[in-house]
Specification:
The complex is a heterodimer of chains A (about 220) and B (about 200). Chain A has about 220 residues and is α/β, with parallel strands linked by helices. In chain A, about 35% of the residues lie in helices and about 25% in strands. Chain A has a single domain, classed as Restriction Endonuclease (3-Layer(aba) Sandwich), CATH 3.40.91. Chain A has 7 helices and 8 strands. In chain A, α3 packs across α7 (about 205-220). Helices cover about 40% and strands about 20% of the residues of chain B. Classes of the chains: A alpha/beta (about 220), B alpha+beta (about 200). At the A-B interface, α1, α2, α3, β1 and β2 of A face α1, α2, α3, β3 and β6 of B.
């Protein structure tokens, strides 16, 4: 039978671990963006698995470091050397971005945590500073790192965003390391985003599923 | 026979009090996750009048607090998210970034100023061409950072960008082992009896 002393010893060992609770202050500020970077990384993997080598770029120079926006921003902003990735698949050129704002069909602007868009539209918006139209987005992912059960309103907000993106958006996914008991049902109807719930390095199957869905859609779109 | 000589409440109090000393923020985060509570399906029996149809049940959703055992499970989940999962995210992102190259621009092409709306804040006299001279850094670790101070901050303090620092695999392994030890010590689920089939 486990005793309180056993528990005490186990907690003490965790507390004194160099990466234990004492280092929480170092981890906390980057957690949410780390999840976006993780999903961005899965997009890179999906592209590589199609036999294509994506490239990391910066808006003004070689991306060293590769900078993720700290808040939603504009694709043409040169405030920092923000990073993005580019790739060409079957002569279709794409870019992968994080934290970029688009203009929806209603005229309202929306931020996409991670997205894949047509490279020509991105290039045009950098040349003639403007927000890209939602019709230039191929895939859109909302990324939520949570330490507890998800809030339902996040799903409702993303469904509203996807609706305003119009029919050119081929793929939309709600990604989180957590889930909510009612969320899978909410995402079931056609045209609702794909629920990538419990998507985390703790569950490699969920990663494979994400990569598979994205690769298949990219292949389908660029097949002709 | 119970698996522990202490209650879930004892365990929860012990964990929170110990973490509070080391990291008050993390302990606050744990408490707030526990206080969210849960949704349950409650039932109500509607009694008919004498001589009428049999009693009916009505179901409805209700928010209630977690039990101590559930609260303990939530506390462990919060701890694992922040200490293990978030580190694994950083390592996983680093691994994927490592496998791709960074593009070196072939040359800087002057672009006609007439193409742009005048603006003092944009340095648009040059534009990188899309041609790639060489691909650098495939299979090399990449430096990934989060902007420390977004563009729209009014009073800038020149905060530095925050670097993603990957955790050493061995440290992550020992951390996961500690959680593996803690899990049975904090699991107060009733064991299942009989043949599950």
């Amino acid at each position: 039978m486990a005793t309180l002393i056993d528990l005490q010893n186990a907690i003490d060992a965790l507390l004194h671990h160099p990466a234990g609770p004492g280092s929480y202050q170092l981890v906390q500020p980057v957690e949410e963006k780390a999840y976006e970077a993780y999903v961005f990384g899965l997009c890179l993997r999906a592209v590589r698995e199609l036999g294509v080598q994506p490239l990391l770029r910066g808006i003004s120079a070689i991306p060293t470091p590769f900078v993720f926006r700290g808040a939603p921003g504009q694709i043409h902003s040169r405030y920092k050397n923000y990073g993005y990735a580019s790739f060409t698949l079957n002569r279709h050129e794409f870019e992968i971005h994080a934290g970029v704002e688009f203009v929806g069909t209603s005229g309202m602007t929306h931020e996409l945590d991670v997205c894949i868009m047509r490279a020509d539209a991105a290039q045009e918006c950098r040349r003639q500073p403007n927000d890209p139209p939602s019709s230039s987005a191929f895939g859109a992912w909302e990324c939520k790192f949570y330490d507890q059960s998800l809030d339902k309103h996040l799903a409702r907000a993303f469904v509203g965003l996807v609706d305003d993106f119009g029919s050119n958006l081929r793929l939309a996914g709600f990604c989180s390391n957590r889930t909510h008991s009612q969320m899978r049902e909410y995402f079931q109807p056609q045209r609702r985003p794909y629920p990538h719930l419990l998507l985390s390095p703790l569950d490699p199957t969920s990663e494979t599923r994400f990569v598979g869905v994205l690769s298949a859609e990219l292949k389908k779109m660029t097949a002709a | 026979m119970p698996a522990h000589d202490y209650t879930a409440k004892d365990a929860l109090d012990l964990i929170i009090s110990k973490i509070e000393v080391i990291s008050p923020d993390l302990s606050k985060q744990i408490r707030s996750a526990i206080d969210v509570g849960k949704d349950v399906q409650a039932e109500e029996i509607i009694m008919p009048g004498v001589g009428r149809k049999p009693a009916k049940k009505r179901y409805y959703r209700k928010h209630i607090p977690y039990t101590d055992a559930e609260g303990l499970r939530v506390a462990m989940m919060v701890l694992e998210s922040h200490l293990v999962e978030s580190r694994m995210l950083i390592n996983a992102a680093q691994e994927q970034f490592k496998k791709v190259g960074v593009a070196s621009p072939k040359k800087l092409k002057p672009v006609s100023q007439q193409e742009y709306a005048p603006s003092d804040s944009l340095e648009l006299d040059i534009e990188l061409t899309d041609e790639v001279a060489e691909v650098l850094g495939v299979q090399e670790p990449k430096d990934i950072a989060i902007e420390g101070e977004p563009e729209t901050v009014l009073e800038k303090k020149n905060l530095p960008d925050v670097r993603f620092l990957p955790i050493d695999d061995n440290e992550l392994k020992t951390l996961r082992e500690l959680f593996a030890i803690l899990k049975p010590l904090t699991d107060f689920k009733e064991p299942k009896h009989g043949n599950p089939n």
